[in-house]
Amino acid sequence: MATVLSVSGSPSASSRTGRLLRHLDQRLTAQGHEVIPLDVRTIPAEALLGADFRHPAIVEATELFARADGVVVGTPVYKASYSGVLKALLDLLPQYALTGKTVLPLATGGSTAHVLALDYALRPVLNSMGAAHIVQGWFTLDKDITAHEDGTVTVAPATAEALGQVVDQFSAALGRTPYLAAAS
């Protein structure tokens, strides 16, 4: 199956976003994919904020993106946009780091007023980085995610069902590149 890079753009170690991603990683693993988690907050701040392209952590993150067939990008929404740490990482990746890749954008936030952040803030950046296919993303309300002390989460039933469908669509899309299909 495919190699999936699961990127959490949350600056918080106890983030609902990160926990939700790790929960979804289990579904992708059960479908036979190799899932590699990347928590952007673990990359040294001096590398991100100093734009140190040669820092070992930035080099490693760039290699993880290059290795992946698909990328899940999760972010909390702050002030109607994706997180600053995610932006800092995306800015340091090569211009076309997502070329040929299937991408699933996910976001979490406190209000449905932020749902458009996926389509109007994150999707254009992912598209500009050459993503072959950006599947329909999903916005999850914070109130629908219950974080437990052991690091796991419980997702409200209706949200869990919708997220499952989105993840399954992403899984099915892995390996199918619109450009290759059009050329044949």
UniProtKB/TrEMBL annotation:
This is NADPH-dependent FMN reductase. It comes from Streptomyces griseoruber. The lineage of its organism: Bacteria, Bacillati, Actinomycetota, Actinomycetes, Kitasatosporales. GO terms for biological process: alkanesulfonate catabolic process. One of its GO terms (molecular function) is FMN reductase [NAD(P)H] activity. The keyword Calcium does not apply. Residues 3-144 form the NADPH-dependent FMN reductase-like domain. Pfam families: FMN_red. Keywords: Flavoprotein, FMN, Oxidoreductase. PANTHER family: FMN REDUCTASE (NADPH) (PTHR43408:SF1). Gene3D superfamilies: 3.40.50.360.
